[in-house]
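We store chain and fold; example below:
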Amino acid sequence: MTENKKILFTDLDGTLLDSHKQISAYTRAVLAAFAAAGNHIVLSSGRDINSVADVQREIDLFLPGMYLIGFNGGAIRDCDSGQIVYRLTMDKKDALTILRTAAVMGIYSHTYSATHIISPGMCRELKHYTDVIHTPVVYTDPSWDSLDADVYKCIAIDYGERSRLAELQERLQKSLTDVTFAASAPHLLDMFPAVSGKGAALVRLCNILNIPISDSIAAGDEENDLSMLEAAGHAIAMKNSAPALMDVADTVTEYDSDNDGLVRAIEALGMGGRLH
């Protein structure tokens, strides 16, 4: 009997990437063997889609049948063709409510067009963010009155007490019932359409490729990965994952991302392209 092909959806930071934002030769070899067996690899991130493509170039991971998911499920790109096969923008009224509420609370936030970060101005938070995420920035007025681009998600950044982002989320959730709130790091709060999310993108791409959900694998470590793990046929939580991911995981890795935790788990499960 021919083994069904698998599709692996992996988060980037803290899951696939090590603390230096790279992958080891061992991880590269396991992923290459996985793809050579006819399986698909999907890099799935809260980053904008062009930033995900930047990461792919930085780690030089180009294997047949790869896809990229950005904006927490707001865009899916076929790497072989370079085409966007799915996109979903955010209701601009919801985005403006988020951006203006954060500003009133003294919390920095910005949004994204298809190609740029849209920000009210340079500050410490944006500087730190763009040191890692190299997406170009365009500036708009602090009132956001001139925002006219289609937008994909919003993010709030606060390097102080985590309670400030929790307070922002609590305030916004009272009126924004069509928005999902998820932490992508302790100091980052992602906000995106409720019909989006990494889990919804997993289901959409499996449907596009006619791959049963039961043959999907999802791996992550932060709250914005939760829907992806819940949707997948097999859920892998990294060793130091948020507790909510541990609760839904079928597998918790023995090793972290600095020690090839993801691919060691894939090999232990015998899922495609086993090296030994």
